[in-house]
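Quick one: structure for this chain?
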Amino acid sequence: MKLKTMSYCFALTLSFSTVQSIAQTDASLWLTKADRSVLFAKQNDALKFSTTKNSNPTILINEKETYQPIDGFGYSLTGGSAQHIIQMSAPARAALLKELFATDGNNIGVSYIRLSVGASDLNEKVFSYNDLPEGQTDLNQAKFDLGLDKVDVIPVMKEILAINPKIKVLGSPWSPPLWMKTTYDARGGMLKPEYYDAYAKYLVKYVQEMKKEGITIDAITVQNEPLHPGNNPSLLMAAPDQAIFVKKNLGPAFEKSGIKTKIIIYDHNADRPDYPITILNDKEARKYIDGSAFHLYGGKIEALSDVRDAHPDKNIYFTEQMVVERPNAATINITGPVRRLIIGATRNWSRNVLEWNLAADPENKPFTDRGGCPTCQGAVTIDKDKVSRNLAYYSIAHASKFVRPGSVRIASNELPDLSNVAFKTPEGKKVLIVANTGKEATNFNISFNGKMVSATLDKGSVGTYIW
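Got it. Here's what it folds into:
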């Protein structure tokens, strides 16, 4: 009886291995073409792996050489984004959120969201969670209230969590309450040293109050764009000040409160890798820090690797980049953001890629006065219940649907005009994202485990290959 059972199990294992082997002889392709004739659509013809060789350039995939794990891909759910989404009819809103956050069918599976702690420059008006008249203070945050976020951001997040309960959420503050600043103004100014402790309590309260709403804040950046005090709202925070705040106030406050939310520093452009490096060089500060976050409005994406090389035990994140196109354009520059961000950031150790921002109306509203962003197009444009999809939507979709949280980047060689990055998913699937940045269509091979598949990409096209 035992022998029969063992034979049966062996037969099942053999059968499963055979099916798995057959499945790995085909690769599927999701494609976007520059001329908009195809926009993130699965192609009908399966690509066949074989031992046939040719002289075309070859992308070699090596799953045994691994790099960083992946937390996800997504957008900032700004107050303005949430405002438009919550004002849609319930059926239209449900359909949009399913398309964005579910993974089945043609849904794109966004897996990471960034929230502003208080207002960002894409809110209708500036606010914090503890606004007081000038001259008043509240050191222990007795008057803390999530306030305006209860109207739109929190209800939308709850609907998102119903679709994907495991989505990662990052919080980023644009400004502390005005009474904590050197100038009673949402724009610029600095955090007064005497309020460092009060501000740490403010951020502790944010994490705790969001948790009460059922929203777990996985990570928090100390300050959005600390070297750009011109936004409304904003705050100037030099690297030495951020180091002091983390090691003396925020880190100990999180530890004392039992908060596991990760602390991420910098959250600004790739032109100043010295900012996070100097903070991580501080032994007292670094023990509280999970990693560093970057934007790409300045500098080169390779600077992320410079920071990682200086501190290989600390993580790298990519938390913001505005990606826009002309409305009703005849073509789509899909290779631009895919090459720079999806491929560029992950090839330089980033665990995520977030674009800015999820939704706006046809006039890119709302945005704050005296320093808001009138050119910040959403990944989707919402006009009442009508939704149109923009460049940021398609560029994130090429990764978010297939490179699920827990995936790991694996080795692939870059070729001239064929920028690419490869991943292995938790289920063992391989995902290769390729952008043809050249001036003509290119025939190439994908080589994996001694077999090859022949592929073609038109100029300006992006393909995601899955097997």
